[in-house]
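Here's my example:
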Amino acid sequence: MAMTGAAPRADLGAFLRRGEGQPETLELLVPDVRCAGCMAKVERAAQAVPGVAAARVNLSQKRLTVAFEAAGGDAAAVVAALERLGYPSTPFDPGAAREAHDREGRELILAMAVAGFGVLNTMMFSVPIWAGLFGQELGSATRTLMMWFSGVVGAPCALYAGLPFFRSAWRSLKARRANMDVPISIGVLLTLAISFSETFLKGRDVYFDAAVSLLFLLLIGRWLEHRLRARASSAAADLLALQAASATRIGPDGALAAIPVAEVRPGDLLLVRPGDRLPVDGEVVDGVSELDNSLLTGETAPVAAAAGAACRAGALNLSGVLRLRATAASEDSALAAIARLVELGAQARSRYVRLADKAAAVYVPVVHTVALLTFAGGWALGLGPREALIRAVAVLIVTCPCALGLAVPAVQITASARLFRRGVLVKSGAALERLAEVDHVVFDKTGVLTLGRPRLVDPAPSVVAMAAPLARASRHPLARTLTEAACDGPIATDVVEYAGLGVEGTIDGRRARLGRAAFLGAPSHGDATELWFGFEGDTKVRFRFEDTLRPDAAEAVTALRARGLTVEILSGDLSGPVGRVAQAVGVRTWRAACTPQDKAGAVEALAAAGHKVLMVGDGLNDAGALARAHAAMAPGSALEASQNAADLVFSGERLTAVVTAVDVARSAHRRALENFGLAAIYNLLATPAAILGFVNPFVAAIAMSTSSLVVTLNALRTGGRRWTS
């Protein structure tokens, strides 16, 4: 069997991935997957192939992952099954996926340009025809000539610009379901057909301009959706990009060799220098240092690393040189696990059925049935086939889903614009729909409820000035905070940095130390982030640090509760700092020391209990939970991967942006439902008139345009409470 765009059967076995103790897997690029219905159809077809254990589609990347029950899986059978279904596939390649996405974007832009050209040029011939309807002098021959010119220009433009909708409608009909593209396609084709019929028969009205104008407006929305999907698909890739591209392997003879991180195997001995990120998960064999795990765990304080300590890929080595024994390959690292959490979350979220799709499921079969009955009934009651067809087309035009198609997008565009002016970027229309439904909010602590910057608590200026010369000689994050509190000044001399412990140097002829409590022989309190300073043989001084709370964090939590939402905190930080922040903002439910898997699991558990969760986080340890949540937000200071995993991103330091987003989303939801109601009322009034012949296609087109205008004007009422300082 010939398979367009698919690799030959003999070559497919080379693309099977085999892991120790793991089933064989095959990854395929399926470029025509566009919605939750496509996903379900493709997954069912793949799972029906003998020997396939599971199949999963990633909608944002259009990637199908197939797991086989045993070795020797028949990859060609899976490709053939998809081909028969109308979904050609090729072995997945990230470069090919990007190329396919770019090609789709170019096709949409070209279709939009053709539609725009058609609108402008068809109107030149339509305006004289319209003028003739209002008593202007226009001879029969001239009128017919204008009709032909309108068709010659408008019809080819409409047929080309409509290809994205025609393909989508055909796939939907083959799957025995109807999406919004089905009535659009049928309406456009029948409009062109009746327009040519009227031109041949020298009738009064043609609608070439209406067909191409509708497609132009719809293509603008389709292209914007394409751009938003591109931004949302990069979260997992951004996470894996944080993994070091190479690693320094220590050979049996002690020689150092730089190798790609993909070639690291468990048991390899690696060298990690200060300033480098750990390439894979491992155990420290030799060396002492401190690791910055803030992006992984959210904990603000660096963590000591010495022989025997387990550490994870993505952590930043701050001070000493470490020799690391790899305990996992790059694809099995903590970073890769977080990326998988994000990908699975995106997979689940992409199955969300949007309001317009729910409406289409009811609207499409009803409208088509009414139009068909109008044609059949008119013919049976004595109307000629031409008159019966005109009435049926009038029904289709008057009930054209323009108003229904604009009901949600118009609201979402308005809501997104208003949120943008208030410092909140909305990444997709579906995000607003999901945000309007949330009933529970989960906050991360560091970087969300707090600003993510350590602050010196109750600093005594004289003591800070005493320790500042030694702090200025250190690269430690807490030492830098101490330096900022003291401003400019002298630097200690004869400085020696002890990896993982602190620094020692001379200040005004006296030896002094700055670092951990054990380094100075002081008793650690263990209830806060701390740094100790003292001169040799003198009293030791403790500096305590806290992360700065966002100024309106308590106000935001109170406002969310007032709107009926419950709130909790999930943080990777220590219990002491988390408990103090929870008390300060008035949150009773909180958990500390959460791993990325803990956070994602907690969000899943809440969803299983019936909650629709809004997750607000900023770090790598939040990315999985952000992707699994019903809706997700991230601050503008968040890691890029976390921003991409989120639905909305807010700028500035005010947390009430979360409240504003919820308010606007709820307002948008109300306006969308009102628009559906207005569209329904319009159809209930206009459809009987079209059936009885009181509305011809020309009047139907005007009525349809008026309903779209009403829906758009109602969308402009979307708003929410404005928060001020």
Notes: The first strand starts at residue 25 and ends at 29.
